[in-house]
């Protein structure tokens, strides 16, 4: 029996972002009877419970500000070591999601080595590039990443671009890496076209089906909102630009408003967040097109969901996006006029061209990014290690 301890996500049931959704599917879609998952969960107590047949253990962490995520990972790792010792487990793997605990990693790694436990790390994306961090935190992230790459038994990269970066940047450590992507589903939304929730959402935001371009993602500068809004405003499109993101009390929103004056263009519509997953999927399906400006990090969950649901996808031309979209998407650069001209072109597509591009996008997900494939790849990795 292989015991796999997963730390670094906020836990399951998934309420948050990419890592949580990944752990949700990994446990829910488990096929092998020879794997037991132990999942660390950020909790208000230290209780233990079972979910998706995985043993979940809560870790209560004091509120220490921005260091809370680091402390959570360390406390989770300590709990894994305690449990493995107490139960005298053999054949165990600890899988750490993200590179937050580099300066402390070798200390725990030595203990785990003595116990015969392998440690895998998912390096995630370029966390040290994110604009929300100040200079010193960025320095910490980069330093932490280096030490985790140095000491990990295996780095599981969800993007070939990230895998190449790890191999190039840290070649002197001769890191052992493998590639297993993130996943998505191509099942259609359960909501009907005349579902009251959907109709009300369209009415509330004065939007019509297939008459809008869509952006879904964290409202941060590195996702190139300013570029996309400016270019959309410069386009001749008669459609709306619907932006689903949390912009409340966001200084970046005010900066963007001052710089672009988007409030003068009635096509630009910030509509807040949509937590109902079936409604969000339906909104994706009924978008005319999807704009994706992410450039930091690996395989992005919102991009996979767009390719699985939306027929025309316009992506920023960076290695991570091209790797995922391939011939199932259209690409724009940061050059002035690149995206606006692409939007003008996409607006003229025939129904046949739209359907063909949508089919190619879905095919990318089915062949390379389906959850069944991802779960199978992970189970094979864990069982063979």
TrEMBL record:
**Record bears the keyword Ion transport:** no
The residue ranges of the DUF1972 domain are: 1-185
Annotated keywords: Transferase
Q: Which organism is it from?
A: Aeribacillus composti
Query: Is Transferase set as a keyword in this record?
Result: yes
Matches recorded under Pfam families: DUF1972 (PF09314)
State the protein's name.
Answer: DUF1972 domain-containing protein
InterPro entries in alphabetical order: DUF1972
Q: So which domain of life are we looking at?
A: Bacteria
């Amino acid at each position: 029996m292989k015991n796999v301890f997963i730390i670094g996500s906020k836990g399951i049931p998934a309420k948050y972002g990419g890592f949580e959704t990944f752990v949700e599917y990994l446990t829910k879609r488990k096929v092998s009877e020879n794997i037991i998952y132990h999942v660390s969960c950020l909790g208000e107590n230290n209780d233990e419970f079972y979910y998706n047949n995985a043993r979940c253990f809560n870790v209560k962490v004091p509120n220490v500000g921005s260091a809370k995520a680091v402390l959570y990972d360390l406390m989770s790792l300590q709990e894994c070591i305690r449990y493995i010792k107490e139960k005298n487990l053999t054949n165990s793997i600890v899988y750490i999601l993200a590179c937050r605990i580099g300066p402390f990693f070798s200390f725990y790694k030595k203990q785990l080595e003595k116990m015969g436990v392998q440690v895998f790390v998912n390096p995630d994306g370029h966390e040290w590039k994110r604009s929300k961090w100040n200079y010193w935190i960025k320095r910490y992230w980069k330093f932490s990443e280096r030490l985790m790459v140095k000491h990990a038994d295996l780095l599981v990269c969800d993007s070939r671009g990230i895998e190449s970066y790890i191999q190039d940047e840290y070649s002197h450590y001769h890191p052992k890496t493998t590639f297993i992507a993130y996943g998505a589903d191509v099942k259609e939304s359960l909501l009907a076209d005349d579902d009251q929730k959907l109709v009300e959402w369209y009415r509330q935001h004065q939007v019509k089906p297939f008459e809008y371009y869509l952006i879904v993602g964290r409202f941060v500068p590195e996702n190139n909102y300013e570029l996309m809004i400016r270019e959309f405003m410069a386009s001749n499109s008669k459609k709306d630009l619907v932006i689903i993101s949390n912009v409340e009390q966001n200084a970046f929103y005010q900066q963007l408003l001052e710089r672009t004056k988007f409030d003068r263009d009635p096509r630009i519509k910030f509509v807040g967040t949509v937590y109902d997953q079936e409604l969000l999927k339906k909104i994706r399906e009924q978008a005319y097109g999807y704009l994706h400006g992410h450039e930091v990090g690996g395989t992005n969950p919102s991009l996979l969901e767009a390719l699985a649901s939306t027929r025309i996808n316009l992506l920023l031309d960076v290695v991570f996006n091209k790797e995922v979209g391939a011939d199932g998407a259209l690409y724009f650069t940061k050059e002035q006029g690149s995206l606006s001209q692409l939007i003008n072109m996409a607006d003229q597509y025939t129904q046949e061209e739209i359907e063909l591009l949508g089919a190619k996008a879905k095919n990318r997900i089915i062949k390379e990014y389906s959850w069944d494939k991802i779960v199978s790849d992970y189970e094979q990795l864990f069982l063979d290690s």
